[in-house]
Write a structure and sequence with these properties.
Helix content of chain B: 25-40%
Order of helices and strands of chain A: HHHEHEEHEHHHHHHH
Strand content of chain A: under 5%
Oligomer: heterodimer
Number of helices of chain A: 12
Number of helices of chain B: 11
Strand content of chain B: 25-35%
Radius of gyration of chain A: 19 Å
Number of strands of chain A: 4
Number of strands of chain B: 20
Chain lengths: 297, 449
């Protein structure tokens, strides 16, 4: 980091916060919730993600190796991906990181990397799984995550998509419970899910893969919710939100065309106009942004 | 830089093989099976793709004439989809997968030979009650009798309903005692398109068949819904209910998606005296774990590929037994017909144990089959110290290690069960006059005084 000493010290990259929060969640999951992942497997996922990022940086001749986004994707895989096979963990990490470089449209990668890695392998029928029940419903944990997550998203801006998703998902669950004449405890129980909060604050909020305009993002959150509801209540399948996000991510270029807005960048030159309270930070690699360092997984 | 890269690569490759393999040898001596719990129901759930076969055994112990159950099912069932199962097969499955105690005998520290022995043990306990009923007339209250069968000793009706009020009235008029609060739950199932499987005992058939107990009811259906309805059972429950789910699948372990699935503590050393009181230990330990998880978790007690176990607490289920429970993909040597084999056919069993009540389990259990093939069993280890005389140098060190082990065993048992440590030590016997919590000084070990 050879920062220009003449400039004032920039605020921290929001991804540092994300890395801290995800690491904390992983430690909590490993130490207290006994996730089905060993520390060794977590290290394998993280190192493979970083290695892939490094190789892709060289292949695509990016000016600088930035481990932050890869670390976020790797940590997210540690929290979500479960498999008996080390080789599949490696493959998932490679696919996750490589998707940022390969699956692109007009300078943006289309899929949230971790979401793509998981859905791609599940779609192929690989022996992996995601355990939405692993977090339990311990309320204080949910609050903790929401607070920490809120902090992260606010720093990274585009928190509107998180709120829009949570509101529409709550509407779906409460509406469904009302229709099915269930007790209110049922939708409340579903909203108290740690997996849902993780998704809302750390996956769908990915500013690099959501639509550029606010209206587009709210629309995006609504359609992701609607299709997730169809998977949960119509097809009776698990992980509806993951499948739905992957599906609708493909529609983001279309949404951007219909509802255009400025593209998000993690690190933004000071002179650029601010939108939605995005942090300002001196970009260490100005002008050269052929492949933005992607967001969290 | 190159060196760092090389080191990193070596580390990374070592992580690929970082899956620790575990193995053990020993003999099973005690089981904690489902009979140890009051208000316990057992459900065997065979599932592959959308095909589901349920075998339900409840702990009803009253008059057969008073027995009746109402179970929500996803589809209208044909006669061929209903069957009466064999209780012995369920008991076999229960025994096979139950948490167990294994015992090891310390070898003579001077001679270093091994002695292993085993002694089987069993336990039995009481049962509970359900609803009551009588048979009756057909009538339109928005209730439709979709089908009516007599299968084994059961008279079975498949009902569909438009309104819970109508269904409740119909059930009441037909002599079923519907508990207060059932209407709302029935309404919810009706809204979700569920049908109702109503069974009562046909006394004539029961006498003719000569069974003195109620055999498990089996149903097979095709539905994407991979769930178990709990809520009707909670309506008239006077306390927490105990449910054992034995899932039999092809690909791997089954877990709940809307509740946390937690592994029971396992593989820990516990004092020798527990051998005589293993059921009490299992109950206390389970209760303690339930409390630790705020009564909101489902517990994994066993997950195993049934093609082998080493050693087995009970013999694995035969192909015929598996098929009788609904594992349709298992080739049966006696049936004459074998399903087409495409690759290796595994049978994976998951045993889940849940203590539920309406407050902590607002939703029905929803499951998913994972690709997890790793084995797990709730196993507790008892080590018998060497009791013989010895005069070698090692005997002193050995006795010290046994003493330390006993201290730890007492602590483990107290942590697992919440029992008072003083009473545990008393039951363990032996000399505790020397403060058992006091660690052995490191210099004692160094110079072997």
């Amino acid at each position: 980091m050879r920062a220009d000493s003449s400039r004032p010290r920039p605020p921290l990259d929001p991804r540092i916060y994300q890395i801290s929060v995800l690491s904390g969640l992983l430690i909590y999951g490993l130490g207290w919730l006994h996730f089905d992942i060993t520390p060794g497997r977590a290290a394998l996922l993280l190192s493979t993600a970083l290695l892939t990022q490094y190789v892709c940086t060289k292949l695509w001749r990016l000016p600088k190796f930035d481990p932050k986004s890869a670390l976020i994707s790797g940590l997210s895989l540690c929290l979500l991906l479960r498999t008996n096979f080390a080789a599949l963990a490696v493959l998932a990490a490679v696919v996750t990181i490589a998707s940022k470089f390969l699956v692109r449209w007009k300078g943006k990668h289309i899929f949230n990397p971790t979401n793509f890695g998981l859905v791609f392998l599940m779609f192929l029928g690989a022996p992996i799984w995601v355990s939405p029940g692993q977090w339990g419903n311990v309320a204080y944990f949910g609050f903790l995550m929401a607070c920490l997550g809120g902090l992260v998203v606010n720093r990274a801006a585009r928190s509107d998509v998180t709120y829009a998703f949570l509101i529409s998902f709550a509407a779906l669950q409460f509406g469904r419970a009302f229709w099915a004449m269930q007790r209110w405890e049922v939708p409340i129980h579903r909203m108290e899910s740690g997996a849902l909060l993780l998704f809302a604050f750390f996956m769908i909020s990915d500013p690099k893969t959501t639509p550029n305009s606010r209206a587009g993002r709210i629309l995006f959150a609504a359609v992701v919710t609607a299709f997730a509801g169809f998977i949960q209540f119509g097809l009776y399948r698990t992980n509806g939100i993951l499948w739905s996000l992957a599906l609708w991510s493909m529609a983001v270029p279309l949404i951007d065309r219909l509802l255009p807005g400025p593209q998000y960048e993690w690190t933004r030159p000071r002179q650029k106009p601010q939108t939605q309270g995005v942090i300002d930070e001196a970009d260490s690699s100005p002008r050269h942004r052929p492949l933005d360092q992607p967001a969290l997984g | 830089m190159k060196r760092i890269l090389l080191l990193g690569t070596v580390l990374w490759i070592s992580l690929l093989w970082a899956n620790p393999a575990s193995c053990f040898c020993g003999f099973y001596v005690a089981q904690g099976n489902a009979k140890l719990f009051n208000h316990a129901s057992k459900v065997v759930m065979v599932r592959d793709a959308d095909r589901t076969a349920l075998t339900m055994a409840n702990d009803y112990s009253g008059e057969p004439a008073q027995f009746a159950i109402v179970i929500p099912v996803p589809t209208v069932l044909q006669r061929g989809q209903i069957h009466v199962g064999d209780r012995a097969v369920m008991e076999h499955l229960d025994a096979y997968s139950a948490p167990r105690l294994v015992e090891y005998f310390d070898p003579d520290p001077c001679l270093r030979y091994e002695a292993l022995r085993s002694a089987p043990m069993s336990q039995g306990m009481a049962r509970k009650a359900a609803d009551s009923m009588n048979s009756a007339r057909e009538r339109s209250l928005g209730v439709r009798i979709e089908a009516r069968y007599t299968v084994g000793e059961y008279d079975i009706l498949i009902l569909s309903a438009k309104q819970s009020g109508g269904l409740e009235t119909w059930l009441l008029e037909n002599g079923y005692s519907v508990p207060a609060g059932a209407r709302r739950v029935l309404a919810s199932y009706i809204r979700q398109g569920m049908k109702f499987f109503v069974a009562k005992v046909n006394l004539g058939e029961q006498q003719r068949l000569g069974f003195s107990y109620l055999r498990p009811i089996q149903v097979a259906y095709e539905s994407p819904k991979f769930m178990l309805p709990l809520r009707l059972g909670m309506v008239n429950a006077d306390g927490p209910q105990e449910l054992f789910v034995f899932a039999i699948t092809k690909n791997g372990r089954v877990e709940t998606t809307n509740y946390r699935t937690v592994r029971l503590p396992e593989g820990v050393d516990i004092p020798e005296y527990v051998k005589d009181d293993f059921p009490r230990f299992y109950r206390a330990m389970f209760t303690r774990q339930v409390e630790n998880e705020n009564r909101e978790a489902v517990f994994l007690e066993y997950a195993w590929n049934m093609s082998w176990c080493d050693p087995c607490a009970a013999d694995p289920l035969s192909a015929d037994e598996l098929r009788s429970l609904g594992a349709f993909w298992v080739a049966s040597p006696n049936s004459g017909w074998n399903p087409p084999q495409t690759g290796p056919q595994t049978t994976f069993i998951t045993r889940l144990h849940v203590r539920y009540d309406a407050r902590h389990f607002p939703e029905d259990l929803v499951f998913q089959e994972t690709a997890d093939q790793s084995n797990f069993q709730a196993r507790y280890v008892m080590r018998h110290p060497w009791k013989g005389e010895g005069s070698c140098d090692g005997i002193r060190e050995y006795r010290r290690s046994v003493r330390e082990r006993r201290v730890k065993e007492a602590e483990t048992l107290a942590t697992l069960t919440g029992w008072d440590i003083a009473s545990i030590r008393r039951k363990m016997g032996g000399d505790w006059s020397d403060d058992p919590d006091k660690p052995v000084p490191w210099w004692d070990r160094m110079w072997k005084n």
